[in-house]
Amino acid sequence: DCRLGAWGRSSAVSQAQRPRVLLCDDHRLVAEALKSLLAPEFELVGVVEDGRELIGAAAKLRPDVIVADVTMPQLNGIDALVQLRKGGARTPVVFLTMHRDVTFARRALEAGASGFVLTHSAPAELVTAIRAALDGGTYLTPQLTSEVLESMRQGPDRAADPVVELSPRQREILQLVAEGGSAKGIASSLSISSRTVEFHKYQMMETLGLHTTADLIHFAIKHGLVEP
Q: What phi-psi label fits residue 193: left (phi over 0), alpha (psi between -120 and 50 degrees) or beta?
C-alpha cells in the first residue's frame, strides 16, 4: 500500500493535519520555488540536497510523501529510492526532474516511484501528483505517458538504458567516481575496501564494454547519473 509512510507508518492524514512533505533538491532556487508552491496545502518538514541526506531524513522525519530530483550529488534520487525500498520504507516518492526522457521515467517507476513530473510542469502538475501519491496512486506527466507505456509494453530494452545492467552498488560507486572521488575516499564513505571499489570499477567496464575511468565518467554523465 503506497499510502503507508516510512517503515510501515500510516500516512493517512486527518483533515485537520496537512500532509508532511520532505523535499530533496540541490538547486536552491528550485527548492525555494517549490516551498512557495507547496506551502498552501502541505507542511514542509525538511529540505535536503543529496540522496544520502534523503535516506537519513526520511528515517528521522518520517514524511507522508517525498518530492525529489533525479540527478543529485552523492546518490541520485532513483538509487536513493532503491535504498529506501530495500530498507523497508514505503513512503511515496514523487520525482520532479528536467529529464524529459522515457528511460528516466521508466527507471523511476520500476524503482517504485509514485510520480514523475517535469520541472517546467511543476506549477500545474506537482500538487496533483502528490495528492495521487498520498491516495496510493501513481502520477506520470501526460507528456510522457504514451511513450512510457509503449516502452513497458515492448519489454526490457538494455540498449536504450544500459544503466539497468549495473547493480545498485555499482551505480552508487559509478556516481562517486564520476563526481571525482578516489578509490580510497569512496571506500571510506561506503564502508568497504579500496580493493572492492576497484573490483566494481573493472566489473562495470567489462559489463558496459568500456576501457578507462574516463569512459565510465562519460557514461555516467550521458545517462544522467551525474550532472555535466
A: beta
Q: Which three cell numbers stand for residue 216?
A: 565510465
The residues, ordered by sequence, that sit 6+ positions from 148 with a Cβ below 8 Å of its Cβ are 102, 105, 106, 109, 140
Task: Render pLDDT for 179-204 as a digit per residue (tens, 0 to 9).
Answer: 999 999 999 999 999 999 999 999 99
Side by side, the strands of the sheet bearing 139-140 are 43-48, 20-24, 65-68, 93-97, 115-118, 139-140
Residues 6+ apart with CB under 8 A from 154: none
Q: For 39, what's the count of Cα atoms within 13 Å in the CB-facing half-sphere?
A: 7
pTM of the model: 0.82
The CA-to-CA distance between both ends of the chain, in Å, stands at 37
